[in-house]
UniProtKB/TrEMBL annotation:
Record keywords: Glycoprotein, Repeat, Signal
PANTHER family attached to this UniProt entry: ATP_GTP-BINDING PROTEIN, SENSOR KINASE-RELATED
Organism phylogeny: Eukaryota, Haptista, Haptophyta, Prymnesiophyceae, Prymnesiales
Keyword Phosphoprotein: no
One Pfam family named in its UniProt record: FG-GAP_3
InterPro entries, alphabetized: FG-GAP, Int_alpha_beta-p, Integrin_alpha_N
Protein name stated in the entry: VCBS repeat-containing protein
SUPFAM superfamilies given in the database record: Integrin alpha N-terminal domain
Length: 557
C-alpha cells in the first residue's frame, strides 16, 4: 500500500505507515540530525548559555539558560525525494534542508528509517534535491540545489555513502535542480534554475567543466526547471517556471546551445488607460492587460496591466491535436490556455471565461463525457467554475459550480460514486469541502457536504485507501487533523477518520504505495510541524506514522 512522507518546516518530518485501509496509521518520527545533543552549561554574563553543541532533537540545559547553539532549532525541509540510493531494492528518502545538513534516510525495507546519513556540504540552504546516476556507474548520486552557496553533486560510493562532493560552477543561487541528457551524449547533464539559469554538461564521469548560460535576465525569478522534448525534434528542451513569464528554451543540440527562447503568454498584449484623479488622488478606473500601460502623471492606475500571478499550472491536450497544451491558473487576472503548435511554441493564448478570478487551482477532466478535456477552476471569494471544451481548445460555456462563495484551495475530479463519469471535489478553506456528483453531462445537481465541518482544507485528493474498490477522499487541513473520508460506494462518506499528526498545517496530501505492500499509504506535506508518512496496514488503518527527519524542536524556556 502507499504510505505518506511529510517534509516539514519547523518540526520533524515523518513517515505515516498505512495499515492498509486508510483508517489506521503508524506515526514514525524520522531521525533528525544524527544523534543526541546534550549540553549542560553555566550562565554567561548576559544570562544566556554561550557553549556550542551539535546534534538532533533531544538536548538539555540548566534551568534558565538558553542553549541556543545546541542542535538546530527548526530545520526547514524545502525539498523531498525518494530513490534507492543504497541499491537494496527499496526507496530511501532524500531531504533537502535549510539550516542544517541535508540528509539521506536509508529504508530498512519496512518503511522505517533507522539510518540517517548527513550529506556533505554543511548547513547550506538547499532548496531542491534530486537523485540521478551522473557518473554512469550504476548507482544513484545526489544533486543539491543550494541558495547562497555552491550547488553540489554528491557521488555515491555504491552503498548510499557519498565521500565525493563536487561544487558545480555557477550554482550559487539555485531554486531548482534537475538532471537530463540535453546534449544527447548518453550521460545526464545538470539543469540549474535560479540566478542565473544554466546547463552543466557532463563529461561522463560526474564532472561538469562546461557551463552554458541559458537565455533570460538572470533576475532569479525562475523557481522550477525541467526538460522535455516540446518541439518533437528528438532532443530535450528546457522549461522554465518563472514568477512573471514562463518560457521554453528550444535545444539546438549540434551547437550545445539554446538559441530560441519562447515566452509563454500569460496575459493580453497592451493595456493603455488614461484616467483622471479621484478625490483621493488615485485613479479609480479599472483595466486589464499586460505589463505595458500609461497613466496620467500622479495617478495610480494600479489595475491597468496588472501582472499575472500563476498559482497553478497543468499540461494536457485540450485541442485534441496530439500535443500537450498548457493551462495557467492565474490569481487576480484571467486564467489562460496556451495551445501548442506541435513544435514547442505557443502562438495561441486564449483567455478563459470568467474574468479576473482569484484562481488557486486548475485541473482538466472530461466531465461532460463528450471526449474532450474540460477545465476546472478552483477560486477564492467567488464560485469555482467548470469550463466546457468545444473540442478545439476553446471554452465558450462556463458553469458556476454549486456551493457557497468560499475559499477553494484545491480542486480535483474523480468518479467517487462509481457511475462512470467524473465528479468534482472541492477542497475549501473556512467552509465545508464538497463533492459535486456529475449527472453525466457536466451538470451537478447533487452537492454533498463532506464530514469535518468548516475545515481549513488546503489540499484534496481521491484514492482507494481501504481497498474496497471505490475512491475515498483525503483532506489535508490547516490547524486541525487531516482526514480520510471512507466512501460508502455511492459517493457518500459516512465515516471520517482523523489522521495521525495533530493540528498540522498540511499544504499537500497524496496517496502512494511507499512501502511496496500493495495498498495506498498517505503522505502529508506540512508547514510548521513534522511532515509524515502514514503506512497503511492494508485495511485502511494507519497504525504506523513516520515523522520525516529534518527538525529539532525548540528548547523549553
Amino acid at each position: 500500500d502507499l504510505d505518506v512522507l511529510l517534509g516539514n518546516s519547523g518540526s520533524p518530518s515523518r513517515v505515516l505507515l498505512n495499515a492498509g485501509n486508510g483508517v489506521s496509521w503508524t506515526n514514525i518520527t524520522l531521525p533528525d540530525n544524527g544523534g543526541l545533543c546534550t549540553e549542560t552549561c553555566a550562565f554567561s554574563s548576559d544570562g544566556v548559555c554561550d557553549d556550542g553543541g551539535s546534534g538532533a532533537e533531544s538536548y538539555s540545559c540548566n534551568l534558565g539558560t538558553d542553549c541556543a547553539d545546541c542542535g538546530p532549532r527548526s530545520t526547514t525541509t524545502y525539498s523531498i525525494a525518494a530513490a534507492d540510493v543504497d541499491g537494496d531494492g527499496d526507496l530511501d528518502v532524500l531531504l533537502g534542508n535549510s539550516g542544517s545538513p541535508s540528509r539521506v534516510l536509508l529504508n530498512a525495507g519496512d518503511g522505517s528509517f533507522p539510518t540517517s546519513i548527513e550529506l556533505p556540504g554543511g548547513s547550506a540552504s538547499t532548496t531542491s534535491i534530486a537523485a540521478a546516476d551522473v557518473d554512469g556507474n550504476g548507482d544513484l548520486d545526489v544533486l543539491l540545489g543550494n541558495y547562497n552557496s555552491p550547488s553540489r553533486v554528491l557521488l555515491n560510493a555504491g552503498g548510499g555513502t557519498f565521500p565525493t562532493s563536487i561544487a558545480m560552477p555557477g550554482g550559487e543561487n539555485t531554486n531548482s535542480i534537475a538532471a537530463a541528457d540535453v546534449d544527447g551524449d548518453g550521460d545526464l547533464d545538470v539543469l540549474l534554475g535560479g540566478s542565473p539559469n544554466s546547463v552543466l554538461l557532463n563529461t561522463g564521469d560526474g564532472s561538469f567543466p562546461t557551463s552554458i548560460a541559458l537565455p533570460g535576465d538572470g533576475s532569479g525569478t525562475t523557481h522550477l526547471i525541467a526538460a522535455a522534448d516540446v518541439d518533437g525534434d528528438g532532443d530535450l528542451d528546457v522549461l522554465l517556471g518563472n514568477y512573471d513569464t514562463p518560457s521554453v528554451l528550444l535545444n539546438a543540440r549540434a551547437a550545445d546551445s539554446f538559441p530560441t527562447s519562447i515566452a509563454l503568454p500569460s496575459h493580453s498584449s497592451t493595456c493603455t488607460e488614461t484616467c483622471t484623479s479621484s478625490s483621493d488622488g488615485v485613479c479609480d478606473d479599472g483595466g486589464s492587460g499586460s505589463a505595458s500601460y500609461s497613466c496620467t502623471l500622479g495617478t495610480d492606475c494600479a489595475d491597468c496591466g496588472r501582472r499575472s500571478t500563476t498559482y497553478s499550472i497543468a499540461a494536457t491536450d485540450v485541442d485534441g491535436d496530439g500535443d500537450l497544451d498548457v493551462l495557467l491558473g492565474n490569481y487576480a487576472s484571467p486564467s489562460r490556455v496556451l495551445l501548442n503548435a506541435g513544435d514547442g511554441t505557443f502562438p495561441t493564448s486564449t483567455t478563459l471565461p470568467g474574468g479576473s478570478a482569484l484562481t488557486t487551482s486548475i485541473a482538466a477532466a472530461d466531465v461532460d463525457g463528450d471526449g474532450d478535456l474540460d477545465v476546472l477552476l478552483g477560486n477564492d471569494f467567488e464560485p469555482s467554475r467548470l469550463l466546457l471544451n468545444e473540442g478545439d481548445g476553446t471554452f465558450l460555456t462556463y458553469l458556476e459550480l454549486p456551493g457557497d462563495v468560499t475559499y477553494t484551495w484545491s480542486i480535483a475530479a474523480a468518479d467517487v460514486d462509481g457511475d462512470g463519469d467524473l465528479d468534482v471535489l472541492l477542497g475549501n478553506y473556512g467552509s465545508p469541502s464538497r463533492v459535486l456528483l456529475n449527472a453525466g453531462d457536466g451538470t451537478f445537481p447533487t452537492s454533498i457536504t463532506l464530514p469535518g465541518g468548516s475545515a481549513l482544507t488546503t489540499s484534496i485528493a481521491a484514492a482507494d485507501v481501504d481497498g474496497d474498490g471505490d475512491l475515498d477522499v483525503l483532506l489535508g487541513s490547516s490547524g486541525r487533523a487531516s482526514l480520510v473520508l471512507l466512501n460508502s460506494g455511492d459517493g457518500t462518506f459516512s465515516k471520517s477518520i482523523e489522521l495521525p499528526g495533530g493540528s498540522a498545517f498540511t499544504n499537500s496530501i497524496a496517496a502512494a504505495d511507499v512501502d511496496g505492500d500493495g495498498d495506498l499509504d498517505v503522505l502529508l506535506g506540512n508547514q510548521g510541524s513534522p511532515s509524515r508518512v502514514l503506512l497503511n496496514a492494508g485495511d485502511g488503518t494507519f497504525p504506523t506514522s513516520i515523522t520525516l527527519p529534518g527538525y529539532c524542536p525548540a528548547a523549553a524556556r
